[in-house]
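User: Please predict structures.

Assistant: First:
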Amino acid sequence: MSELAKRVLVAVIAAPLALWIVLAGGAPLAALIAIVSAVGAWEFFRIARGAGARPLDDVGIALAGILPLAVHAHYLGVFSARPALAAVVVLLVMAATIWLRGAHGAPLLAAATTLFGVLYTAGMLAFGYAIRYHDIVAGYDSVGAKHLLLGSLAVAIPPGGALLIFPLLVTWASDIGAYAVGRTVGGRKLIPSVSPGKTVAGAVGGLIASMLVAWAYGRGVLVPVAHLGLSPWGALTFGLLISVAAQVGDLFESLLKRDAKMKDSSHIIPGHGGILDRFDSLIFVLPVAYVLLSWLPIPVFQ
């Protein structure tokens, strides 16, 4: 099977499943983020080892998988996540390096790489869950899901689901816009020492595509489904900043792989490389989107 066929097959299977999970929210969404985070942490530590570090792989992978589940439990009210608890976890990781690495096992680098790997993967991706249950849509829980027509199919979209789809769709638009314009126009390279294939024209194309999609989605979906509006400038600002975050996230992961002299973070997804290769943009996008969605939307009373 060709690489293109593998890409298409994976997309056909994964896209509807991911959409269902985003709309369902709750435990399915937390489980998906936990799995992606744990595998992403494994890939990150693989990259780190290629760059000469010796992280505490098992500890970091476990923490990356637990963190999104802990966020889910926090939203359910099972327990209250406090900064002191996070501090204790950090201290335990640092303490573990005493026995697992010792004086001659680069303990400082091991502890720092392990903690950063958890923060970079689970710490950032967990904002996807936080967006799904963002405070700005909490007041409309009683309204329930709205039905939008996709061709002849009516799809039930809850307000939180519409909110989470927003940055995902804008990120997708940025990737497609950058690829299409970059391939068509070519020209000056963006940062060839980090990612030789990216061009300035492609970066601009990604920005424009994101801004247009943000404006359209704000008017066509957020207002009727999530009871939220965006001013024209607010929508364009959201699209612009999300595209910047997405492109920087892509470049940062490329920088990590270049440091480790690796082409892909892994080969776990047929035709697509690794988890980090697919989620590198969202790692930067989701926290930025959470902040922007706290500031820009305007409640619409219908």
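Second:
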Amino acid sequence: MDFTEIAIIGIDGEAAEVVADLFNRYGHGGAVIESLAPDFEKVTVRTVLPAEDKERLREVEVLLALIGQALPKGLPEPRLQPVGESDWATSWREHFHVVRIGQRFVIKPSWREYSPSAEDIVIEIDPGLAFGSGLHPTTQLCLKIFEEMDLHGQELFDVGTGSGVLSIAALKSGATIARAVDVDDVAVRVADENFERNGLMDRVETAVGSSTENGGRQWPLVVANILAHILIEIMPGLAAALSTDGQLILSGMIADQETDVTRAAQAHQLEIVERHSHEDWVALIAQRDSSSSPHS
């Protein structure tokens, strides 16, 4: 099958959030979000549509125009180009390189070479078409939060795992076990391949689903790096999955969405104890509200 690739190039976090949501709904295989070091502030969002589906292309172009009118900075003109199925399956790889995040984490695409230092924590991934290269600013925020935590002996519930990069990072930083779930069965397959690639299959369990697929237990560390409206939607499950003294990392939002996510957390007896930000992107750490009885 031939495709038409649509790319919105060099946009900020607010625009990327909206465009990625659109592409995830209309695109073939979802959105691919790329941010190239060292300028992580600007990202490119791309997807493909079947070349013969002219009606869907027109619909996406109209929606992009409406989004551009609604955003303060507008949107650049979409770049359209024809690609064959084999081209799309391989050409996006050219944009991913070995990248250091924080002091120790190194994201290494499986097709790149890298000689690590003794202190490096190398996360080798094949992100597939749309499930997270580790380069998105919200993933970077989570990795930098991990770097500030003592993860030795920790147990992680990773909701919306995508490529599995956060579970891999936690396990390679001393966590003993991770449960990684995603609503997309292809993402779970990609994550399983990456866990095997990193030699972690005996320390991770995967499932198709969302925050309610918690393995029948509560977890001392829960992370959800997903779009803000989904964080709000699944907050009941996230709260239920969190152990009494646990920490919940909420990432994937832009600053304008922080208040709504915070309110959703507070509605489930969670209080925000830390805030981390990078440009437009925000990550929050929540714990059970000490003034309330534990949520069940």
